[in-house]
């Protein structure tokens, strides 16, 4: 059975991810206590279910500690298990809870004898949740949704689902340093040393996928040298990630605004590796 476990920080988009998987044919269960995972898988296997997606959150604190072992047991039984861990920075999470006017799931927890007036603040809930989930964050592919719209997240989840049969998926992601480094990056490369098309008024409104910007950067020796160096680094270390049975490797390429140089470089790298590897290309700051 194909099994996708969706976990992460509340407000980071787990419901969006679960809905995408449901639309692609997965049997979906939300907020399942990890202790019930093995019995659920057994029951659905008997019924002939081929694909299962389960969302797990920090409210199942008592059984979260067993989740890594549960995953290993399922893999030993021959199931294809993948984990998606969604996260976002605290500023984005606070804004989302404010917009939806919903309370954090942990805000309703009270210690025995505790006065209801002493409930955790939203910031305290987010910090507590990060601590509870820290041990399982490294179990799978981390997706930083801080700067993502719900629609863009849906697209990224679909890319992940489509890559599920590949031994390793290589993600190239462009981003803007002025917005922040993606938390889901395995490697981060800074291409701000390359001449910036932004200072050419005819190129400023364009991006790194447009022909005039490509021509400008193709003419820069430093851009070609940077491309060769990043390409060589990935080619050298990619076999090690495959031997380590990694399912995903995210390479983030950053420039100042995430519009020209990082987009150009991510596009070139994706084009080079596509075919030899399963490649997914993402531009965080682009619509």
Automatic annotation (TrEMBL):
NCBIfam families to which the protein is assigned, alphabetical: PRK05416.1 (NF003828)
Chain's gene name: rapZ
Range of residues in the leader sequence: none
Residue span(s) of domain RapZ-like N-terminal: 1-161
GO molecular function: ATP binding; GTP binding
Keywords for this protein: ATP-binding, GTP-binding, Nucleotide-binding
Lineage: Bacteria, Pseudomonadati, Pseudomonadota, Betaproteobacteria, Burkholderiales
Name of the protein in its database record: Nucleotide-binding protein
Domain RapZ C-terminal: 169-286
Family matches, as PANTHER family: RNASE ADAPTER PROTEIN RAPZ
UniProt-listed SUPFAM superfamilies: P-loop containing nucleoside triphosphate hydrolases
A Pfam family this chain is assigned to: PapZ_C
Entry binding sites for ATP: 8-15
Keyword GTP-binding in record: yes
InterPro entries per record: P-loop_NTPase (IPR027417), RapZ-like (IPR005337), RapZ-like_N (IPR053930), RapZ_C (IPR053931)
Entry-linked HAMAP family: RapZ_like (MF_00636)
Residues that, per the record, bind GTP: 57-60
